[in-house]
């Protein structure tokens, strides 16, 4: 696995037998820098917020090892929205510092799904807002399809997660240089818009077994969930993928900027 | 009719002639207990919040008698989102204490629809947040269909409504034992997630004449509206159907827990 | 072009060659009256909030002249969500007072799309909440279609935009007679409901190339985006098209009232 926003190398079509895909997720409780000079005590999967994207095909088995190193202080677990039963695996994976656990589940549904720590009660939002969330993309074995059933594919893929940090601010409204703990929790759905582009194909709720919507300007990703979209970039310029709740985008920085180059690479 | 979360007995397919379905809704202004030791002065349909679920088939006539007993203090009425014209019936059903009224409308659209008190102006949100809302499910005469048009059915049905109560809290943040009146109104769409399960079929906006989305982890029910979903429970364990805005779920208790048993019954 | 809520005269089906549609948008910084006796300093396209609706067909070219008169004080530009590249035109259209610019783009996607001023950084939400937003409807050349692919049409069309104004209030909660500047920005998706009617056909995300949902009571327009819906009015009475977040509708006035007459005209 690789750190976000990048994807591991993967095939889009995989018509062979189901595989067992081994994943190792290590919980790291550590300080991260979320803006220049602004540090936060975070809980992470493999060191990044959000955690790494996992890619499998429908019918594959995910065999995840969840490691909670003895240097940590808290109990953690994992709830895979891609799995069924046992609270998404949450009731089978609770591990204290110094413990690890192996969970195997079958990815029976095609789509984009969240995973997150869910150790119970108010600790659920508390751990999530400290950074413990990521996503898994379960591709149909035959690959993605447009509304008419024709195969579609992508040249490259990125994983962008919107994370709410609730941070104290100085008197002038600035985030000063300090170490902070998040204090509150996510509150709303995310409105996504690609400035200067369209969602040529959008799976707003993440389910690849329903036909994608086409040609959208803006769409809504439900809070605490994952969706997927395909964009055709027609001009090598700067694009912003942002919350079209514009205050979130421009005051609270809920935006991702990328610059596709003419040669197909991206900065 | 039976109290929520239960459904009245009903046929899923009804290819006979349209029926006249008689419904009696009595407004009860009374104190209810919404958490252990916490009482609120509520306005209810038939004593529960939300009010009872009504089930008819497309083309049936709903003949509702709305009773406002003389023991009440306020004007009430009812706006059926399943009906057309006359403000959903609101302009024909306003009754004072000691009055009753009969409204007949035809359920011309298949889907899940809200009903609620709507006596005008700021009294609309005021009565709704005091508890005066419920839902009607208008089934297609031929029953529900998957996206390919094949018939689908369910073994049992439950009605879960999310209700915002805006309650004063003590200095320590707890709801202490007291009688309270709601003070504010609903503010956002509801993000639904079934922990450990999937929405095998989801009518996010409630309309049964559009194909359901399939295999979702999470979906969005619009504020003040109704949707429907079918879940296949594969393991007799505890499930939580909750807001996946996790602060709403775990701090403000926007969750419903149920435990399907191996023998098919539910606690 | 005509002022909202009215549409310019247009054909719904246009199977001829693509046209060049010339549009002139003039930015007016001026005081407007948003409630009786309540005035606000606004930034407008052609004097109204929202700006005028533009109607073209898929494949047409929009040739817009954006005029920033010398009587204005600020830089403005325009981001068309209907266009691709160059930040929706935003990076090509920045004009200071006394300047004008011509932008031509091709409407390659069918749907309802927002346009808005986006001069960069926190000025983006600042200009939008002062009033600088509108919409363009790009009709399919063959006209609109129901989910089965059959043509559908409308008798008349209106454009209703919900605009958040964040206004200071007096001690008693009233908006007193005063001139105000907006202070904050939009925060959530809009839940739409037509009291006493249904969305017979709803393009919730605006894309006309996906089949519309049918027979909805309520739907969600993403913040900062446009959708479209067709309603069949069966009774000449008063209807309210409003936010079904009822506090927004009845306390913050997020509603539009109209009264279709028997003769087909509207007040």
From TrEMBL, chains A, B, C:
<comment type="similarity">
    <text>Belongs to the multicopper oxidase family.</text>
</comment>
<feature type="binding site" description="type 1 copper site">
    <location>
        <position position="132"/>
    </location>
    <ligand>
        <name>Cu cation</name>
    </ligand>
</feature>
<dbReference type="GO" id="GO:0005507">
    <property type="term" value="F:copper ion binding"/>
</dbReference>
<feature type="domain" description="Plastocyanin-like">
    <location>
        <begin position="27"/>
        <end position="142"/>
    </location>
</feature>
<dbReference type="InterPro" id="IPR045087">
    <property type="entry name" value="Cu-oxidase_fam"/>
</dbReference>
<dbReference type="InterPro" id="IPR001287">
    <property type="entry name" value="NO2-reductase_Cu"/>
</dbReference>
<keyword id="KW-0186">Copper</keyword>
<feature type="binding site" description="type 1 copper site">
    <location>
        <position position="117"/>
    </location>
    <ligand>
        <name>Cu cation</name>
    </ligand>
</feature>
<feature type="binding site" description="type 1 copper site">
    <location>
        <position position="244"/>
    </location>
    <ligand>
        <name>Cu cation</name>
    </ligand>
</feature>
<dbReference type="InterPro" id="IPR008972">
    <property type="entry name" value="Cupredoxin"/>
</dbReference>
<feature type="binding site" description="type 1 copper site">
    <location>
        <position position="116"/>
    </location>
    <ligand>
        <name>Cu cation</name>
    </ligand>
</feature>
<keyword id="KW-0677">Repeat</keyword>
<keyword id="KW-0479">Metal-binding</keyword>
<dbReference type="GO" id="GO:0050421">
    <property type="term" value="F:nitrite reductase (NO-forming) activity"/>
</dbReference>
<feature type="binding site" description="type 1 copper site">
    <location>
        <position position="81"/>
    </location>
    <ligand>
        <name>Cu cation</name>
    </ligand>
</feature>
<feature type="binding site" description="type 1 copper site">
    <location>
        <position position="127"/>
    </location>
    <ligand>
        <name>Cu cation</name>
    </ligand>
</feature>
<comment type="subunit">
    <text>Homotrimer.</text>
</comment>
<dbReference type="InterPro" id="IPR011707">
    <property type="entry name" value="Cu-oxidase-like_N"/>
</dbReference>
<keyword id="KW-0560">Oxidoreductase</keyword>
<protein>
    <recommendedName>
        <fullName>Copper-containing nitrite reductase</fullName>
        <ecNumber>1.7.2.1</ecNumber>
    </recommendedName>
</protein>
<feature type="binding site" description="type 1 copper site">
    <location>
        <position position="76"/>
    </location>
    <ligand>
        <name>Cu cation</name>
    </ligand>
</feature>
<dbReference type="Pfam" id="PF07732">
    <property type="entry name" value="Cu-oxidase_3"/>
</dbReference>
């Amino acid at each position: 696995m690789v750190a976000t926003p990048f994807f591991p190398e993967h095939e889009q079509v995989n018509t062979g037998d189901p595989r067992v895909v081994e994943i190792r997720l290590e919980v790291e409780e550590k300080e991260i820098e979320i803006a220049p000079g602004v540090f936060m005590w975070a809980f992470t999967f493999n060191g990044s917020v959000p955690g790494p994207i996992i890619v499998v095909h429908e019918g594959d088995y995910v065999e995840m090892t969840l490691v909670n190193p003895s240097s940590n202080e808290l109990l953690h677990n994992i709830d895979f929205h891609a799995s069924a039963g046992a609270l998404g695996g949450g009731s089978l994976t609770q591990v204290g510092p110094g413990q690890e656990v192996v969970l195997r589940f079958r990815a029976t549904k095609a789509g984009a799904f969240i995973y997150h720590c869910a150790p119970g009660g108010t600790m659920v939002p508390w751990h999530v807002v400290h950074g413990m969330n990521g996503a898994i993309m379960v591709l149909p074995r035959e690959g993605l399809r447009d509304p008419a059933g024709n195969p579609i594919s992508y040249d490259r893929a990125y994983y962008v997660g919107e994370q709410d940090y609730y941070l104290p601010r100085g008197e002038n409204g600035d985030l000063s240089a300090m170490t902070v703990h998040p204090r509150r929790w996510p509150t709303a759905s995310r409105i996504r818009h690609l400035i200067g582009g369209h969602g040529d194909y959008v799976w707003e709720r993440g389910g690849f077994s329903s036909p994608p919507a086409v040609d959208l300007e803006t769409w809504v990703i439900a809070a605490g969930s994952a969706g997927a979209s395909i964009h055709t970039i027609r001009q090598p310029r700067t694009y912003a993928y942002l919350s079209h709740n514009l205050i979130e985008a421009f005051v609270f920085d809920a935006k991702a900027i990328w610059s596709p180059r003419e040669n197909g690479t991206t900065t």
